[in-house]
Every structure is written in C-alpha cells, then in structure tokens.
Amino acid sequence: MIQLTDIEKVYQTSTVETLALNRVNLTINRGEFVSIMGPSGCGKSTLLSIMGLLDEPTHGTVTLSGRAVTSYSDRELADLRNQRLGFVFQSYHLINDLSVLDNVELPLLYRKGISGKERRQRALAALDKVGLNARTSHFPSQLSGGQRQRVAIARALVGQPDIILADEPTGNLDSVMGEEIMDLLLTLNRRDNTTIVMVTHDEQQALKTERIIRFFDGSQVN
Ligand code: ADP
Ligand code: ADP
C-alpha cells in the first residue's frame, strides 16, 4: 500500500543539520495495523509526515499503490491526501465553532460530485462507526477528550481513506479513554480492514497491533 525506499530526511537550519531519518525502508500492507515507537526526537513525526505526503524526503522514494509519489503533480498530491489518507492527531484538531456533524462533513466539502445530502449521510455513517451518532449537534467544547478523538476519527474515516495515519492518538487522554480509543482503532482495523499506522509511546497499546516498528536516532532498529 505504502512503500518507503531508502528514505532520508535532513533538516537544515542556518547552524545545524539534523539527519531525522536515515535510510528507512519499510512497507505497509493493506489491512495492517502497525505501531511506530521510539524515544522523543527519533524521527517518528517526520516519518508520519512523509507517509502522509505532508513533507518530502531529502532522498528516497515514497510509493503509494505502486506509483512513485514524485510522479504526481501538486494538485494530484492534494487530492491524494484528501481522498486516500486520513489523519488523526494527538490534539484532535477539530474546529470549535462547527458542530460534530459539520466537523465530520468537512473533508467531503472539497470533493467534487458529492451532494449535501450524501455528505450528511456519509458523516452520519462515520459517526455511527465511532459510536457518536447521539452527539451530532454538540460542539467540540461540550465533549470529553475521548469523544473529541472519536469525532476526529470519524472525520478521518468519512472519505473512506486507504490508510489512517495517527500521531499519538491517545496521548492527551487518561488511560481509560485511551484504551477506548485504542479498542475503537482495533475494531476499525479488524472489522473494516482499515489500514492504520500509529505513532505511540504506549508499549501496552503497541503490543495489541500486528507489528511494531522501532526507531532510534532516525534509523529503524528492528
Ligand atoms: P519524534 O516525532 O520521534 O519526536 P521528529 O520527527 O519530530 O521526532 O524529529 C526528528 C529530529 O528532527 C529531531 O532531532 C528534531 O529536532 C528534528 N526536527 C524535526 N522537525 C524539524 C524542523 N522543522 N527543523 C529542524 N529540525 C527538525
Ligand atoms: P502534537 O503531537 O505535538 O500534539 P499533532 O499530533 O497535533 O502534534 O500534529 C502533528 C503534526 O502535524 C504537527 O507538525 C502539525 O503541524 C501537523 N498538523 C496538524 N494538523 C494538521 C492538519 N490538519 N493538516 C496538516 N498537518 C497538520
């Protein structure tokens, strides 16, 4: 599904050069649930941004469904991000003055050929999947952290992406809510065959996924 070949990422500031990723080779297969672990600063977020087509590697190739990402135009890349990838962040990134339903509909607004009615139906279906269909007209401030993350997951799912990229999705939640979100992700993976790549610091959570990829200092260690 996503293949990284010889990925290197160098961050250059006026005084320092950081090798954030060093010759990373990995393949994420369809239907997998993979965790990425490693100490702070080892390159996890950089890796997720490159997989999410938010940032370009300094060297190496990202291949999405068999096609090198460099062969796409900027316009095509934006469409790929919008249509094939779903993002979940530690801090939810919901829009506070939009209702739950409007937040979830948002990714579909930029797509051609989807009517308002279909948008609504698909958003309701996504909210149903995360168990939040009783909260559609609430605003984010009226929800618990766990519920907010469920909305964010529904927003990631609504476009039926090939892959969900989650950057510490339970990092802001207490252990009970964190476990609920983890169980939800496991259900989405097992029941719907959703491919998930998750950065986490939580070893217990990582052990529940199919594969753990460990990083240290920009390199994969397993
Ligand atoms: P992690 O997510 O594992 O904490 P990051 O991918 O955020 O690690 O960072 C990897 C390394 O790259 C770190 O040394 C970090 O300081 C550096 N880095 C990350 N982003 C930038 C940036 N925009 N400019 C310069 N250095 C960066
Ligand atoms: P943190 O883990 O520090 O809370 P987040 O998980 O919220 O950070 O965000 C991870 C990275 O993704 C950040 O570098 C942020 O700038 C970027 N980011 C956050 N939201 C979006 C978005 N909607 N689209 C693109 N990039 C985003």
TrEMBL record:
Q: Which GO terms describe its cellular component?
A: membrane protein complex; plasma membrane
Decide whether keyword Transport is in the record.
yes
Spell out the PROSITE patterns in the cross-references.
ABC_TRANSPORTER_1 (PS00211), ABC_TRANSPORTER_2 (PS50893)
Annotated keywords: ATP-binding, Nucleotide-binding, Transport
Which SMART domains does the entry mention? AAA
Ranges of residues in domain ABC transporter = 2-221
Tell me the Gene3D superfamilies matching this sequence. P-loop containing nucleotide triphosphate hydrolases
Instruction: Tell me which stretches of the chain form a coiled coil.
Output: none
Q: Does the keyword Nucleotide-binding apply?
A: yes
Which GO terms of the molecular function aspect are on file?
Answer: ATP binding; ATP hydrolysis activity; transmembrane transporter activity
The family database entries (Pfam families) matched by this protein are listed as: ABC_tran
**PANTHER family in the cross-refs:** ABC TRANSPORTER ATP-BINDING PROTEIN YTRE, IMPORT ATP-BINDING PROTEIN
Concerning its family, UniProt says:
Belongs to the ABC transporter superfamily. Macrolide exporter (TC 3.A.1.122) family.
Q: What protein name applies here?
A: ABC transporter ATP-binding protein
Annotated source species = Hymenobacter lutimineralis
Q: What is the lineage of its organism?
A: Bacteria, Pseudomonadati, Bacteroidota, Cytophagia, Cytophagales
